[in-house]
Amino acid sequence: MQESEKLARAWIDGWNAGKPDDIPLATDFVHSSPFGTVSGREKYLDWVRPLAEKNVTSLKIIRTVSSDSESAIWFEMGTPNGVVQCCDWVKIERGKIIAINSFYDATNLRE
């Protein structure tokens, strides 16, 4: 298994375990999603924790495609309103996740 896939899976596993602080995010981590772009690990975690508590009931990995430094992870996000198909493009450097671009329909999610 590629290191990028291991880190992409750690991303999903950290949220499922309710331990986002344990996810190996770089200090200068950048996350882009339908809600916008957030830069900085702590700023991202402070912003996303309450959103995840309201909107995410489960995450189930369907498939990954990986190279040395990037991984696409397709997963289902369980929400109070049903299941949302998601794909995250995860970039890594030096054993940390440096960026994620998330693709999903946010129509039924609350900010």
Automatic annotation (TrEMBL):
Pfam families: SnoaL_2. Transmembrane segments: none annotated. InterPro entries: NTF2-like_dom_sf, SnoaL-like. Residues 8-99 form the SnoaL-like domain. This is Nuclear transport factor 2 family protein. It comes from Aliikangiella coralliicola.
